Amino acid sequence: MAGVLHLTRLRCVKPDDSDVDEVKLQIDGKQVWPNEDDGYFSMGTDNEVPMDIGKFFRGRTVVALYDDENVGADSRLGEVEFEETSRTPGVARIYGNSGSKYELWYEIFRVGG
User: Fold this and answer.
1) For the domain that residue 37 is a member of, what is the CATH number?
2) Residue 71: exposed, middle, or buried by beta-carbon count in 10 A (0-12, 13-18, 19+)?
3) What is the model's pLDDT at position 102?
């Protein structure tokens, strides 16, 4: 059994930084948004952005949000794990250690036997 994770929307409820986070999204350790290799998307309180990201997976997959930093390593804002059997559609809440909160809308389509 396998699945396709489809991410449809990301909303910043509360940023990690004082006003705006420079957000990156990874799936299973590979940056997939806003583009595959570099870059970020600035998000502040109540900012929402549509997405159309699909990822085939078996078993489970992990989506992680990061805040791009000018100096040093990027700050991990949190992560959420999805399984083929996860409730769908849904809204995953991602909480960071510094009080950040994001909401991620998703669907999972089951494929195969």
Assistant:
1) 2.60.40.150
2) exposed
3) 98
Tokens 């870059």 appear where?
A: 39
Domains in the chain, number = 1
Q: CA–CA separation, 37 vs 34, rounded Å?
A: 9
Q: Which two tokens stand for residue 51?
A: 């997405």
* Residue-number span of the structural domain to which 86 is assigned: 2-111
CA distance 107 to 84: 10
Which of 98, 102, 99 has its CA nearest to residue 64? 102
What does each C-alpha distance from 34 to 1, 49, 68 come to in angstroms? 29, 11, 12
**SS3 of residue 29 by DSSP:** coil
pLDDT means per 10 residues, the chain with 113 residues, are 94 92 94 84 96 95 91 86 90 91 96 74
